[in-house]
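Instructor's aside before we start: the two examples that follow are unrelated to each other. I chose them only because their records fit on one page, so don't look for a connection. First example below.
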Amino acid sequence: MYDGVAWSPGSDWSSKPTWTWVPPAAGTYSFQVWVRNAGSPANLDAWRGAGPAAVSQLAPLAATALTVSPLAPLVTGSPAVFTALAMGGSGPYAYQFWVFDGMDWSIGQTWSASRTFTWTPPAAGSYVVQVWVRNNGSGGSWDAWRQLGSLEVIP
């Protein structure tokens, strides 16, 4: 892979006929695949080039929606399903849901690939639900978030 400055190997020699590349940054890239017969002592027996390919800057990750079904008011002891929608960044995304009961935040659903969270309100009151979303491979606390509340829960 050539990034406009230097060539670097995308992978070691392998019998696999595919290679997955994730662009590290916007720019123009060129590629070569080198092939050699099994047991060949040559550096390569054949090659093919491709490119240049332009890679644009990815749109930043955004949590674009957080909805609940059924619509408020919610009822104590009856499940509600929260659904998040995210766009941009680099997927697949990871989602984590949080619930605020007016005093404390608690994790409703730990990090997962699921963009839905089913919550059963434990008591009447006013609640807030947040979804945190991370890009594929992100080690941050979150890359985007969205909040829904104040949600009224009735007995």
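Example two begins here.
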Amino acid sequence: MKFKDAFPALCLLLLIISEFFLFSANRQKSNALAQWHNAQQQLTDLQAQLAIITNSIAANESADVTRLRAENQDLPRLRAQILQLQADNSKLIAQLGNARETAGQRQEQLDEIAVQEEQAAADQQAQAQEVDQILANQRTTCINNLRLIYAAKQAWALDKSKTDTDVPTEQDLLPYLKGGVFPVCPSGGIYTIGAVGQLPTCSISGHVLPPQ
């Protein structure tokens, strides 16, 4: 009787325990489902982030590829430009060398011209001095000739009893001149004998007999 009386209570206890375990299992299941949903959401989010990162990487790689392709396309042009610049530089260096050589040659020519000009100036000065000396010698010779003419006039006047106003000719003075030859101005001047009392003159300026 006691067992029979206790059986319903035992069944009720077992039912309560089973309900408790069922509730606990359901609760654990709900928690597990919630965690699974969270995990799924995280996975989805991670996949979305991965997709964004992948797309970004792909875009960057595409941009880098495009840039590299553009650079590779410009590379031959840049190489051509470098070669052209090198050729221009070599040409300029050659032109500079030629210019320096030409400048050196011109400097040598200028130096030679300067030496020639200095020599020409020295020669011209020497020639001028020589001309001055020749002119001085001619002037001295002409003045000496005028002295001879004056002395011949005086001798003619004494010998012929002439006065200071008488004017002799060249023929009159020849006997009183050395060698019987009437003197000639070395500069091509023309002598004027004049009267006995006058000094003979020469047509060349500066050929003047000093007062006797």
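The first helix runs from residue 2 to 160.
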